[in-house]
Amino acid sequence: ARRAAGWARIVGEVRSADGSTARARLVTPEGYTLTARTAIASALRVEAGEVDPGFRTPSRAFGPDYILGFDGCTREDLA
Questions:
Q1: DSSP symbol at 65
Q2: DSSP states of 28-44 as a string?
Q3: How far is CA 45 from the centre of its chain?
Q4: Tens digits of per-residue pLDDT, 62-75?
Q5: Which 3 state secondary structure label does DSSP give 36?
């Protein structure tokens, strides 16, 4: 029950060569739950032939908004 109610908040920041920055906050379900959901969904898409064989992160394989297709995942761009 505690795990089912859990969540995570991740904040990221990137800086370009010209010094401009972008920040975003990602809220997801608890890590074990999210990992199980994304691993199964990713494996099914690979099995369906949606990506070429070889190593890729999920965002490289399925696009940068892949995570947002899962229940409980939201992203907020920060100023």
A1: T
A2: EE-HHHHHHHHHHHHHH
A3: 15
A4: 999 999 999 999 99
A5: helix
Amino acid at 1: A
Is 59 within 8 Å of 69 (Cβ atoms)?
no
In the three-class reduction of DSSP (H, G, I as helix; E, B as strand; rest coil), residue 11 is classed as strand
Residue 6 and residue 29 in contact, taking contact as beta carbons nearer than 8 Å: yes
Q: Where are the beta strands (DSSP E) in the chain?
A: 7-15, 21-29, 74-78
pTM (predicted TM-score): 0.82
Burial code (b: 16+ CB inside 10 Å, e: under 16) for 45-76 equals eeeeeeeeeeeeebeebbeeebbeeeeebebe
Query: How far apart (Å, rounded) are the C-alpha atoms in residues 2 and 48?
Result: 34
Q: What is the pLDDT of residue 73?
A: 98
The 3-state DSSP class for residue 32 equals helix
pLDDT digits (tens, 9 = 90+) for 31-54: 999 999 999 999 999 999 999 888
